[in-house]
Amino acid sequence: MERWSGKVAVVTGASSGIGWSICKHLLENNMVVIGLAKRLKVMEELREELSKAQMDRFFPRECDLTSLPSLRTAFHWIEQRFAQRMHVLINNAAILEHSKLLDPGNDEALQRVIDVNLMGAIYCTKEAYRLMKKAMAFGEECHMINVNSLLGHVVPEHIPNRGFNLYPVAKHALRATNEVLRREMFEDKLLRISTISPGVTATDMSAKTNEHVENLGESPEIFELLKPEDVAKGILFILGSPAHVTIAELLMVPTGEKY
What we know:
Helix 1 (17-28) crosses helix 9 and helix 4 packs parallel to helix 5 (107-137). Helix content is 45%, strand content 15%. The protein is of the alpha/beta class. The longest helix is centred in the middle third of the chain and has 31 residues, at 107-137. The radius of gyration is 18 Å and the shape is globular. The chain has one domain: Rossmann fold (3-Layer(aba) Sandwich). The protein has a 7-stranded parallel sheet, with helices on both faces. Belongs to the short-chain dehydrogenases/reductases (SDR) family. GO terms for molecular function: oxidoreductase activity, acting on the CH-OH group of donors, NAD or NADP as acceptor.
């Protein structure tokens, strides 16, 4: 990770769970980190938990990934603040809107699932690529990592009662998007693109899913879940691999999870 010291990373969904853990691990490795999330106040409170040196390198910015003006404003600020370039993008933001796909009255919720989990990542990638091209022009290495999900690989039978609706659809599409991008970016020899797909992870989102399942009267399987820091360490593994090695896809699941 030494070669990333002082380089600029952007992490979406940075206000909790996996996103915040990724921010902390990057800061521990001396990177400059911009955290993007809707909950600016939460990120500012989390910033107070950092060491002084890390606080000076963490920049929380409010950003609504369902709004293109909000997203572009955030990246314009990054462009102006950091010499018009950045080096690492971690597309981590994700949401679940619990309902069945065929339930009435959930049209806006379904659209949000696509807007955040798929289109938000795509638009962040487009904005980041524009800044990364400037970094690569100076001979600087860059890396894009999409935080996907086990549900981007399989659709288990219990999905309807979990209320995941279009979440697996968006995550499968995000994997396909990575493959399109890999081909479009093939000539960018200083740019790598990767996906990390965690299984069930102990986050606010999984806690809300368990609450939803319990309301249905189901008994979810009990096993030790992944922790946000497990996923963050996976990110460091991907970033820290030698420049001639691309970890194109990393699937990590709890040992007790069936898939």
